[in-house]
Design goal:
13 helices, mainly alpha
Length: 298
């Protein structure tokens, strides 16, 4: 599959995982930190089986897996803490800033100057995702909660940039496994410190299964797809497709949770999709120009 197809699938999986996470929290009474522990455990188990089936994990991958401490490790811890203090609308809007942060972080760390056209398209797609997020309404947020969400976005953007350098030396599947294993270790330590080891008030087989499935959809699948996409396209261009997450999230909420769909959703979704289609057209034109033979001279 091509990079854009992988990124669209990744964004769709992340959105589906977020919806499943909300459903799991509503039906099980689990705390966010407990659910995160179950989700990451299930994701690591699935990735481990998949990695073993294709040849195992090379030793260097475990050393480079530390980047998983950024995301899902630190980023998701900050995000869950922020969600407990601010509104879901604020969190969604601030989370939409990640595609803008990624090219800026890449520029600061690795001097990867993004194309002006790409920055314009990313900004347009981000405005669209903000419109989709704003359409959900919500209660007032808090400065502390908003600051935690911004910290989460910054950690995620840093992960995206660093991980893009590692996919050249570690295959996507082992990379996803080792990164999430590091994140699981961090999550266990934080969970023990916060709860003393308690998982859910009433742990049932059905609730555990729902949590595990949401973990696979929210972590194993999208991270593997995303890392695979980074082997086929630049990190700044890949990040622009993250603006599809709120679009898929709204669509999934309408289909699964019965939420409404307003004109802001329609306008924002059209803006996001339009910017991404334009980006794909510009990229194809550039590829065609670069592959055309140079006219002979003399």
């Amino acid at each position: 599959m091509t990079g854009p197809v992988l990124m669209v699938a990744s964004a769709a999986s992340w959105a589906a995982g977020l919806i499943l996470t909300k459903v799991t929290l509503d039906h099980t009474g689990s705390s966010p930190s407990s659910l995160l522990l179950v989700q990451l455990g299930a994701s690591v188990a699935v990735l481990a089986v998949a990695s073993l089936s294709v040849g195992g994990v090379p030793r260097p991958a475990w050393r480079r897996g530390w980047v998983g401490l950024l995301e899902p490790g630190v980023a998701y811890q900050f995000a869950l803490a922020g969600l407990a203090l601010t509104s879901a609308t604020n969190a969604s809007v601030l989370g939409s800033l990640e595609p803008v942060m990624v090219p800026l972080v890449a520029w600061l760390l690795f001097r990867e100057r993004p194309r002006a056209q790409l920055l314009v398209l990313v900004a347009g797609a981000t405005v669209g995702s903000v419109l989709v997020s704003l359409s959900s309404g919500g209660a007032d947020g808090s400065m502390t909660g908003d600051a935690l969400i911004v910290a989460s976005v910054a950690a995620a953007a840093l992960y995206v940039v660093v991980a893009s350098r590692q996919v050249t030396t570690v295959r996507p599947l082992p990379a996803a496994l080792t990164q999430q294993t590091w994140a699981l270790g961090l999550t266990v330590l934080i969970h023990l410190a916060l709860t003393g080891g308690a998982v859910w008030p009433e742990l049932t087989p059905g609730g555990l299964l729902l949590g595990a499935v949401s973990g696979v959809v929210n972590y194993a699948l999208p991270f593997w797809l995303y890392l695979s996409a980074l082997t086929r396209m630049p990190v700044a261009r890949a990040a622009s497709y993250l603006t599809l997450i709120p679009v898929f999230g709204v669509l999934g909420s309408v289909l699964v949770l019965g939420d409404g769909f307003g004109w802001l959703d329609l306008l924002g979704s059209a803006l996001v999709v339009g910017c991404l289609l334009l980006d794909g057209r510009i990229h194809r034109t550039e590829v065609e120009r670069s592959t055309q033979p140079t006219p002979a001279t003399g």
